[in-house]
Specification:
The protein is of the alpha/beta class. It contains 13 helices and 15 strands. A hairpin with a 7-residue loop joins strand 11 and strand 12. Helix 11 packs parallel to helix 13. The structure holds 4'-deoxy-4'-aminopyridoxal-5'-phosphate. The site of 4'-deoxy-4'-aminopyridoxal-5'-phosphate (PMP) has 13 residues, from helix 5. This is Aminotransferase class I/classII large domain-containing protein. Belongs to the class-I pyridoxal-phosphate-dependent aminotransferase family. Homodimer.
Length: 399
Amino acid sequence: MTMPAAAAAALPALAARAREVAASPVREILALTARPEVISFAGGLPAPELFDAAGIRAAYDRVLAERAATVLQYSTTEGDPALRAAVAGRLTRRGLATGAGDILVTGGSQQGLSLLATVLLEPGDVVLVESPTYLAALQCFGFAGARVVPVPTDEDGVRPDALEELVLRERPKLLYLIPDFQNPTGRTLPAERRRAVAEVAGRHGLWIAEDDPYGELRFEGDRLPWISSYEAAADRTVLLGSFSKVMAPGMRLGWLRAPEALLRPCVIAKQAADLHTSTVDQAAAARYLADSDLDAHLLRVRTAYRARRDALLAGLPAALPAGSTWNRPEGGMFLWVRLPAGHDATALLPAAITHDVAYVPGAPFYAADADPATLRMSFTTHTPDEIAEGLRRLTLAFG
Ligand code: PMP
């Protein structure tokens, strides 16, 4: 017997945080750049032809041939011991003494950010960020219900004097920084500011999230110390790392290095989120680090990115309206352009797409007071010739 259909009741509402965190307004426009004829400076992607696919495949083959029963099984939340040891060894060799026990393997550094938000942030807590900053970090803090406040920032990143003032006024719980080749600006925080930031955090008792997915992509100049390495903030700085830009983002592997007081809660939060990061992916990454020469691979990547950055810098003066300014990052994947006052990079984007070229407007990267004349250009995914052609098209769009 069939039952009479009951009137369908209304569904309960989504959580407020799901209604309030907006999708990026330029997402739909940028979806149009997937056409193969578009030369895109928009994406934040590593160059796919530079992935060491053969080396990574050999690593997967080997762990599956030798240890299938282990690498296809559930594993610990903290992560593969060999991978944690390899990360700790790399950090220690670069001057940041780290034990394998200080490392939690994550599903990309994005998960590291979301674990931090879970264990640290109550709705209404203040998070300080650079202005502008990484869009998905803004979304992550937004989902936690945090109040995100931008720190006054200049061409060298956050201004420590302004930071201290803001800390006294806002009593933030967390400061989120990308000190090397920042996304979206490509800026690098000078060493003396890193020290000053660590001292402000030490004096006023806030946590620092030091997000460093791009540090290994330095192709000029000297490597700078991590904020985590300054004594003043050693017990309150979490370093977030990623294999996305050094190995492959599709593997979704990252890590965080945190003081014990924060590492344990992050492990428990990760257990609740996904139990652990893929066992086989972690094992393959550890095998890759042991069997392949990551530094030789990174040298190839950096050499290519440097030539691509140079092609972009060479073509920009002719491509942009007179009076535009931009920076010259010593590494990473992006540079930052400011069009002359009165120009609106979002309004100009459809014209660029009509000419089969794309960039990302800067506005969505600001937590507040967006500068509409700014835009981000990535130099990683096209050859120097394609970059030159892309810039010719941009001239037409801006003409
Ligand atoms: N932080 C920053 C600043 C990024 O630019 C990105 C990705 N582009 C991430 C974190 C996330 O990286 P992952 O692939 O390791 O999750």
